[in-house]
Specification:
Blueprint: E1 11-19, E2 22-30, E3 41-46, E4 49-59, E5 76-79, H1 85-98, H2 102-109, H3 114-117, E6 119-124, H4 139-150, E7 155-157, H5 158-163, H6 168-176, E8 180-185, E9 194-200, H7 212-223, E10 227-229, H8 230-237, H9 241-249, E11 253-259, E12 316-320, E13 323-327
Length: 349
């Protein structure tokens, strides 16, 4: 039994809602005046706004974990049979073959954000409007019809018409009369950036009626390779667009839009440079805290963790097993010796 048939039992529909790029399944109630079928594009209330949804399945009983009085109703049908019947059957067969829910198949088949980015629009059916109009017409319906007829295309978005003061019931009444249709306009794909280009096509032989100024422009284009952007030609040749159009009419060049690749527009970053070679700093790890030395003293350190020759940290360290003592010594440079008995020479550093 279809949802549009009269029944004493409430009708329910499970829909796919694409909100924030995370499609999920929700249950809504179907009002008695709406006819909903699987695959229809619906308008449903979600949080504080109305968004698009796809009808997945129909039922005569609500889910057991939901209270029927708290289930929100469907606001309207945007487009019936959004999917072709053969394509919808194919989706169902894929779901049955791989034993996955239909919502999982739809997530894979639909472009990301299709419902969230699409526009719900109302289009006037001029061929179905009777002349003269039947009387009486409500003021709201007549105002809506006048707004659509004043448009060259007779096509507006639902939010725009609602901002104009037309309510949902009036627009739905116009659809039921057959004078308008509601449809879902998919988002526009990104367009390639185009720019006017000038191409020299006359070759070496020029028309005899060209002025000297026009010949100079042709010669400048030939020196530049014969293919430039229009803005560059205007600046380089110090000329105007009408002059170039007259050359195009004479068959010397062609002015046409051409796709321009979008290049990186960020700041130019300098490449990484290798660090200059230098001596590695050698530090004694036996003593981390700095020591205060008397003025004029020259401390030395002997640490087996670093090297076998004296270095110049702060303490004189001797490592025995796992323990390490630091002995402070302030020896004169002439008498400084290492633990091995070798004289410490400043030239050995």
């Amino acid at each position: 039994m279809g949802l549009g048939e009269s029944s004493t039992q409430p009708q329910w529909v499970n829909v796919l809602v694409d909100y924030g790029g995370q499609p999920a399944e929700y249950t809504y109630a179907v009002p008695a005046h709406l006819i909903v079928q699987m695959g229809d594009i619906l308008t449903v209330p979600f949080r504080q706004q109305s968004i698009g949804a796809i009808a997945l399945s129909l039922s005569t009983t609500p889910p057991a974990n939901l209270v029927p009085a708290q289930i929100r109703p469907v606001e309207g049908v945007v487009e019936q049979r959004f999917f072709a019947p053969a394509y919808w059957v194919l989706l169902q067969r894929v779901a049955h073959h791989y034993q996955v829910p239909l919502i999982q198949v739809l997530k894979t088949a639909l472009p990301p954000g299709l419902l969230a980015k699409s526009q719900r629009r109302l289009r006037l059916r001029r061929d179905r409007i009777p002349h003269p109009l039947p009387n009486p017409l409500t003021s709201g319906l007549k105002d809506l019809l006048d707004d659509l007829q004043r448009s060259p295309t007779g096509d507006y978005t639902w939010p725009y018409l609602q901002r104009r003061g037309h309510n949902y019931r009036t627009m739905q009444q116009l659809i039921q009369l057959g004078w308008a249709e509601s449809y879902l306009a998919p988002p526009q794909p990104p367009q390639a950036k185009q720019r006017q280009a000038v191409t020299l096509v006359c070759g070496d032989t020029l028309p005899p009626d060209l002025t000297s100024r026009q010949q100079d422009i042709v010669a400048t284009l030939r020196r530049q390779g014969g293919d430039l952007w229009l803005s560059d030609v205007l600046q380089l040749c110090q000329t105007t667009s009408p002059t170039l159009k007259r050359l195009a009419q004479a068959g010397c060049l062609v002015i046409e839009p051409r796709e321009q690749l979008r290049a990186e527009a960020g700041p130019v970053l300098s490449p990484d440079q290798p660090k200059p070679p230098g001596r590695a700093k050698r530090r004694c790890t036996c003593r981390r805290s700095p020591l205060a030395w008397p003025p004029g003293s020259r401390p030395w350190c002997w640490c087996p963790r670093l090297a076998s020759r004296p270095s110049s940290p702060i303490a004189f360290a001797v490592a025995l097993g796992r323990r390490c003592w630091s002995t402070i010594a302030a020896w004169p440079m002439a008498n400084a010796t290492t633990p091995g008995g070798r004289a410490s020479n400043p030239t050995n550093r």
